[in-house]
Amino acid sequence: MAGRRRIRWEALSLKLVFGLLAAIALLFLVLPTAVVLLTSLTSSQSLRFPPPGFSLRWYVALLDADQMQRAGLNSLIVAFWTTLLSSICGTAAALAIARSRSPLMRAADLLFMSPLLLPALSFGFAALIFINRLGLSPSVPLLVLGHGIVCVPFVLRTTLASLSQLDASLLEASESLGADRLTTFRRITLPLIGPGIGAGAFLAFMASFDNVPVSLFLADERTEMLPIHLWQQIETNLDVRTAAASGAIVIATLILMLLAERFAGLTRQMH
Amino acid sequence: MEADSRLVLPLAALFTAFFVAPLVVLLLLSLHGDIAMQGWTLGNYVKFFSDPFSYSILIDTLLLGVKATLVCLLFGYPVAWLCASAGARWQSVLVFLVILPILTSVVVRTFSWIVILGRQGLLNQIVTGLGLSNEPLRLLYTEVGVVMVLAQVQMPLMVLPILTVLSKLDPNLGDASRVLGAGEWRTFFRITLPLSLPGIIAGCILTYAASITAFVTQTLIGGARLIYMPLNIYQQAVGANNWPFAAALSIIFMITVMIVVGVLGAIGRRSEIHGRA
Questions:
Q1: What is the ipTM of this complex?
Q2: DSSP state string for chain B
Q3: Which of A81, B64, B78, B204 has the fewest CB atoms in 10 Å of its CB?
Q4: Domains by residue range for chain B, with CATH
């Protein structure tokens, strides 16, 4: 009996320790998001937490924040083109890489994934030197190319993962029934890997919208990007409008995440 | 070339023109004394390795990554374990909570941490309210603060690879170990942990690389006095306008990251082979 009690106590203690650590971690994961939302709803002039009262006044104040709105629009435009670029190039490359065993393709895969690990700031700086040597200066199209490099890995990874689960016999069946390659791709492959591409495109969009290190070097002087604008606000005059803008970004992110979960099974694509 | 392989060409062209070429130019510039790139020199590298202040920044950055990664692993593994043992519906909810921070704008996240960690922030109100300390703790602009925030921000990168491995684990192995009389902890340390090593290492690679290169978090939470490599590169490039030296710093930093990733990757492959045997 003593042995059994020991085992039961052991099982309990493991669950207790792991559960406690996980609970702390989950609290810390959610805390910042909750704090941003609550702070942005404050009725006071200061960022004191918890807020003394709640109001929507700072969200209303955002309607007049012209500079912030322009920066937001710039970020949306760049994120849109970056997502388009990285989804098309990333999906095409994933199709080639998934169907090949050649060492050249392995090397290409490694190269395309490397922006995920290498310091983005160094890449942004290198890109600036490069376009300078070519006699060009920072511009929106070049910024989109730079964002494309650091966002492609997201599309490539999720698309490769969904291609690896694609049943090859489906493709054979389609071709043996007389469908040409394009038809097979359009009717069989694309619908099956669609959620993978969708999840990757979503991640690429968020990564571009949020990018600081590349924008810092490749955005021209007239094109201010939202994260950099907010950063400057935080470093200089920390006002509550920054909190409201942050709150708006958090709400938009949550809505997009729920949509991505509904249509692309985001959480299933992530692991 | 087969039709399929040609699909790789657009991305290959983009990477050659806008990733490989800039890095080559970066390397070349680091071997010159000025932006005009006349006359080869190793001066920038000599300057880095002969200046204790310069290389102490590199060492601080590498150690920062180790600390953040260890904290991430300590808390991330139990989260992955909880996700793996939850039912399908709860697993979705938990994974949703886990990826929430990485999808929330990094500037917004950092801003929120300033509200939490500040002198009159949430955490200090709790600490002084409970009487744990008379003085507010200094967390903002300290390394403890930076490690805390990095661990939170990069947590998903640790949890997701571990979760992938844990959810593929055969539950019979654990049952067999328990039937044979091993306790839960022994089963965990002898069976589950070794088998999840590939996931742990994949998670550590991603977390480590992300932590040491996290320019925004390091700079906003660390302030101007805590200098790590990304800020150092930025200050040399933009503040001091010393492009060749900033290029050399970038090359040194990138090579260091590649070495660390390479070593961890080699350990990971070895553990995978052991896992299969």
A1: 0.90
A2: --TTGGGGHHHHHHHIIIIIHHHHHHHHHHTBSSTT--SB--HHHHHHHH-HHHHHHHHHHHHHHHHHHHHHHHHHHHHHHHHHHS-HHHHHHHHHHHHHHHHS-HHHHHHHHHHHHSTTSHHHHHHHHTTS-SSPP--TTSHHHHHHHHHHHHHHHHHHHHHHHHHHS-HHHHHHHHHTT--HHHHIIIIIHHHTHHHHHHHHHHHHHHHHT-HHHHHHHHTTTS--HHHHHHIIIIIS--HHHHHHHHHHHHHHHHHHHHHHHHHHHHHHHHHH-
A3: A81
A4: 55-276 (1.10.3720.10)
* Secondary-structure class of domain A65-269 per CATH: mainly alpha
Phi, psi of B261, rounded to the nearest 5 degrees: -60, -40
- For residue A43, give the nearest of A59, A32, A66, A62 by alpha carbon: A59
Q: Give the residue on A whose Cα is nearest the Cα of B109.
A: A32
Contacts of A270 in chain B (CB under 8 A): 95, 99, 156, 160
Q: What is the DSSP letter of A116?
A: G
* B8/A108 CB distance under 8 A: yes
Which pLDDT tens digits describe chain B residue by residue (277 residues)?
455 788 999 999 999 999 999 999 999 999 998 888 888 899 999 999 999 999 899 999 999 999 999 999 999 999 999 999 888 888 888 998 888 888 888 888 888 888 888 877 888 888 888 888 888 888 888 999 999 999 998 999 999 999 989 988 887 887 888 788 777 888 888 888 888 998 999 999 999 999 999 999 999 899 888 999 999 999 999 999 999 999 999 999 999 999 999 999 898 888 776 655 4
Q: Which of B10, B98, B250 sits opposite A122 (nearest CB)?
A: B250
Can you give the residue ranges of every domain in chain A? 65-269
Of B113, B201, B126, B96, the closest CA to residue B153 belongs to B113
B121-139 burial code (b ≥16 CB/10 A, e <16): bbbbeebeeeeeeeeebeb
Nearest residue, CB atoms, B95 vs list A85, A249, A267: A267
